[in-house]
Amino acid sequence: MVDNSKPIRIIYGETYDEYGLTIDSLKYYLFLSLLHKTLEDMGIKVESFVIIGDLHSVKNKIVQNKDGLLSEAHARLVQVNKIKSKLELKFEPVLMSNIFGDPMFKNRLETITPIFNKSEELKELAKKTILQNRQAQEEKTGFEYTLEEVALIMNYDIKIGPPRETYFDQLAQKLGSGLKGIYLRPTYPLGMNFDFFINNPEIEEFGLTPYKAGSNKMQECRIILGKTSEQDIKNLINNSFIPRDMFLANPILDLACIVGMRYQIDIFDLLNDREELTDRLFNLIKEIV
Questions:
Q1: How much is the pTM?
Q2: Is 25:184 a contact under the CB 8 Å cutoff?
Q3: Which pLDDT tens digit goes with each residue over 83-110?
Q4: Element (H, E) at 87
Q5: Are 96 and 53 in contact (CB under 8 A)?
Q6: In the beta sheet, which residues pair with residue 95?
Q7: How far is CA 246 from CA 4, 48, 59, 137, in A?
Q8: pLDDT tens-digit readout, 176-201
Q9: Pick from 227, 233, 251, 232: nearest CA to 241
Q10: In angstroms, rounded to a whole number, what is the distance separating the alpha carbons of residues 141 and 45?
Q11: From the centroid of its chain, how far is CA 251?
């Protein structure tokens, strides 16, 4: 029996970099909207949000031109709202900076921080949220980024994200949240052959950060909305390895899922016809750019 006295709150959050919005973000926007509509059709009240992580986009000390990136926050909000409108999606985009100013968020952060600081178990779990090369930086700040993320997501019932984010959700659960996580397939670089994934096992397991085009400095292997040319998109698709086993790293499957969700097309038909996939992808990009 569903308690319909208050809505189920769903969240997907993403930071950004200087390269622009990736096609991979659409996978999350479309999935979030489909989940929202499905629950609504079941008679369940739902509120869905895309959090644009402006403050966390500049948190890493290696990020350059932080003022410039922060000034991009409003433009990113406008861009996401345009995609929402053009594709008639069911969510509200919100800037992280607006949430961080909410007294309820500050209260959650103040509540969980001393609990976290006294627990070695929670600290060990927090380390798993961070790439190896950033752990020393995070420990020096008292895991500030992680605690802010956890305090934010504790206000929601369902969070959608890439597989690596499971550790944030586990922290929220151990700190008393009833949050449930839904993890979509990892995002993989386009234009790579089989050997690339064998030689890069971490990317094979976790993929790239879906919403950061410059993740692992592989921006040339991503489709960036409004920036990657049609010819480059064709080349990336045609040069991408497609494994027989659908559970292996497969960037073309991601594109097929995005197009399939938008146009209600069988994804396996798209996998077997790269030309059809490419044409549909071009149409989708033209809808929103």
A1: 0.94
A2: no
A3: 999 999 999 999 999 999 999 999 999 9
A4: helix 73-87
A5: yes
A6: 52
A7: 38, 30, 35, 37
A8: 999 999 999 999 999 999 899 999 99
A9: 251
A10: 39
A11: 15
